[in-house]
Amino acid sequence: MALQRPKGTQDHLPDGSPKLRLDVSARAFRHVTDTAAQVLERAGAAFIETPMFEEAELVKRGVGGSTDIVRKEMFMVYYFGDHGGYVLRPEGTAGLVRAYLENGLKQLPAPFKLWTHGPMFRAERQQRGRLRQFHQVDYEVLGSADPLVDAEAIWLMVQVVQALGLKGVQVKLGSIGDPEDRETYNAYLRELFGAHTERLSDDSRDRLERNPMRILDSKSPEDQALIAELSVKPMLDFLGAEAEAHFTAVRSYLDAWKVAYEVDPSIVRGLDYYRRTAWELHHAHIGAKSALGGGGRYDGLAKELGGSDTPGIGWAFGVERILIAMEEEGLSLPAAPQPQLYVAALDAEHVPLAAQVALGLRAAGLWADFGYKPQKPGNAFREGERRGASQVALIGSDEAAAGTVALKNMASGEQSSVPVSELAGLLGRQDAPDHGALSSRS
Ligand code: HAM
User: Fold this and answer.
1) Sequence-ordered strand ranges (E) for 20-67
2) In the chain, what's the furthest Cα-to-Cα distance?
3) Residues lining ligand 1, Cβ inside 6 A
C-alpha cells in the first residue's frame, strides 16, 4: 500500500518536520485561525461549529443547482454502500444559516455575528492553492440588511489579513443586484449568448437555460474567449434603484474608513445565494483566477432553506491560500513557545524522579519537559538548549537525597541548588508561556 495522502489534500506539519514550509505548517495554520479569532471576537462574533456534512438538498438549495460546486464538485457521503443523501460541505454558509435557524438563534438580538473555521470539500482539479479538502475561516452576520453591516464585514476581512502582515491584498467590490435585477441581466445574457450557442461549451449551453450569469464564471477557455469578444455588459449596469443605493452606501462607509478597494463590475461569484454586495479579496501571488477570499450578502438564503426571512451577509477566506500568500511575501511566524524547564536525571535510577518533578510542575500550570533516559550534564544542557528551555534541572543521587535539583539558567549560565518544593514558585515568577502562543508577533 502506498503511503500517500488522498489527492488534493494536505498534511499540516509540526515544527521540525523535514518537509516543513510555511504553507504546510500546522503552527502557521493555527496562527491564521488564532489571528482571525482575535480580530473577529473583538468585533463581537461568536464562535460556532457545525457538522462537516449536511443534507445534499440543503447545499443544493443554498449554493444553487446551476453552480459548478453543486453540479461537479460535491463529495457525496456513502455508508454501508448506501447513499445517505448527505454531502461533505463544500462551503460553510448554508450549514451556518441552517444552524442559526434550527437552534433558535434568531431570538437573540440582531444583527448576530458568527464565525467558524474548518475543512470544506470540493472535488476540484488539484493545483497549488486549489485543493479537494481545504480550510476556510468564515464570518457571517444574520438579521440585518443595513449596508453598515456589509461595510463592517469587508473591513473585518481586511483587518484579519492585515493582522497577519499581508500587504499585497486587493479588495474587488461589486454588486449583483436584487433578484429582479438579475432576471433582467439574465434575459440580456440569454439574448446575447443565444446568438452564439455553437461557440459555447456544453456546460455553458446548459447554463444558458438554467442561469446564464454562470457562463461568466466558466473556467472553459472557449467561453472566456467568447465573453471577451462580445464585450458583455457587467451586472453593475443592471442594478435597480434600491440595490444601487445600497451599493453607494456601502462604498461611502468604506471611503470614510479609508478601506482601499476597487470596484469590479464583473464580479459574479460562484454561488447563487448572493444578492447586492459581493466582493473578493485578491493577491498578486495567488493569480487573478483564484481569490484569497470572497463574500457577499445573501438576504434570500434563509427563506430558500425553509426558514423565516432573515437577511445575512458574510465572507470566507481559504486558509491554505492565505498561507501561500504569506509565504510568497516572506512573512515569518511569531517565535514558537518554549518550555520553561527541562529536567534530566544523571542516572537511570533517578529518571522516574525527574519525570515526577516535571509532571508536578505541569500540574501546577508550568511547561516542563523531562528526559526519558539518563544524561550527562553536558548532554542535558545541550538538550535543554535544543528545546529552547529557559532552565535545565539535573537530578543525581545528591539532589535526590536532599530533595533538590541542580538548576541552570540557560540565559545567564548561573547555577544553583533549588529545593524541588520551591521550583514551581521560582519558575512561576517568570513569565508563564502562552501555550496558544501564536497570537502575538515577536
Ligand atoms: P468561495 O468564494 O466559494 O465562497 O470560497 C471562499 C474562499 O475559499 C476562496 O476565496 C478560496 O480562498 C477558498 N477556496 C475555495 N475553494 C477552494 C479550493 N478548492 N481549494 C482551496 N481554497 C479554496 C464561499 O465559500 C462562501 N461560503 C463565502 C461566504 C460566506 N459568503 C457569504 N458568507
Assistant:
1) 46-47, 53-55
2) 94
3) 91-93, 122, 124, 129-131, 134, 136, 138, 140, 270-271, 291-296, 298, 314-318, 320-321
Distance 117 CA to ligand 1 centre (A): 12
Q: What predicted TM-score, i.e. pTM, was given to this entire model?
A: 0.92
For residue 138, the ligand 1 atom closest to its alpha carbon is: 30
Taking residue 305's Cβ as centre, other Cβ atoms within 10 Å add up to 22
188 Cα to the center of ligand 1, angstroms: 28
Band of the pLDDT at 437, cuts 50, 70, 90? very low
Is 389 within 8 Å of 370 (Cβ atoms)? no
Cα–Cα distance for residue pair 349/45, rounded to 1 Å: 53
Neighbours of 218 (CB within 10 A): 18
Ligand 1 atom 1: residue of nearest CA? 294
The rounded distance, in Å, linking the Cα atoms of 118 and 410 is 39
Pocket test residue of 63, 112, 122, 134 for ligand 1, highest count of atoms within 8 A of CB = 134
Q: Is the pLDDT of residue 24 over 70?
A: yes
pLDDT tens profile 248-280:
999 999 999 999 999 999 898 889 999 999 999
Distance 297 CA to ligand 1 centre (A): 14
Write out pLDDT tens, residues 189-246. Answer: 999 999 999 999 998 998 998 889 989 988 889 999 999 999 999 999 999 999 999 9
User: How many CB atoms sit inside 10 A of residue 30's CB?
Assistant: 18
Residues 181-191 pLDDT 10s: 999 999 999 99
Do the Cβ atoms of 279 and 261 come closer than 8 Å?
A: yes
Residue 109 Cα, ligand 1 centroid: separation in angstroms?
28
SS3 113: strand
Give nearest CA residue, ligand 1 atom 15.
318
